[in-house]
Amino acid sequence: MIRYLLAVLSAALLASAPLPVQAARLSPMVVDVEPFGRESIARVELTNPGAGEFPVEVQMFRGVISEDGQLELFPADDDFLVFPAQIVVPANSQQAFRVQYVGDPELAKSEVYYMQVRQVPVEVSPGQSQVQVVVNFNVLVNVIPDGSAPDPVVDEVAPVMNGEQPGIQVRLANRGTRYFTAGTLPWQVLGRAEDGTAVSMQLTPEQMAKLIGVGVVAPERFRSFFIPTERPMAEEGLTVTLGG
């Protein structure tokens, strides 16, 4: 009997976390392309430093990220040309994948896609018992029309308790035409704690990435994030500012 363990690496939604096996690596994990022309093509490289072959297959998906960060994927192979779509990567070698957007060239706003590189389980002899760790990589592919720009807006801020952890819930809106990543921006939190003491939090992009991950906010979409604080916060006068 064969048992499979699945580890999924999602660049757009999660902070970095240890995987059961990290033999293979994919780089880069986030790429931006344009709807047409020379810049509609990206190159992604898979490195297999292991001693065995690494068979993979590639499929493209359009991604919809909910307000609470859940990712829903829809098949989108018709919008891309990928070469190679299937290959066995030899041990101690690299394989480059060419990804070209061939969908609607007249996009009004950027679109979020994912290039899913799936390891194919290796067949074993009947009756043989074996544990296989099957790794999937999700590369965030943003298709960005020329002239598009993000417009991050702090829509709502409220003090909350996450179990015993005090903090604030921040709802962000993107009123622009290009995605932005909330986890790569500096944040400033100003206000007062419930005990009346002043609170001023200057959070760097590195700190934000640890708290919320990449934090992709697509055009005309919302995302909500929890930010922990040392003490319970008062609602009056509480503000959050993104950017420098």
UniProtKB/TrEMBL annotation:
Keyword Oxidoreductase (UniProt): no
Keywords: Signal
Domain Pili assembly chaperone N-terminal: 42-145
Signal peptide: 1-23
InterPro entries listed in its UniProt record: Ig-like_fold, PapD-like_sf, Periplasmic_pilus_chap, Pili_assmbl_chaperone_N
PANTHER family, alphabetized: PILUS ASSEMBLY CHAPERONE (PTHR30251), SLR1668 PROTEIN (PTHR30251:SF4)
Protein name: Fimbria/pilus periplasmic chaperone
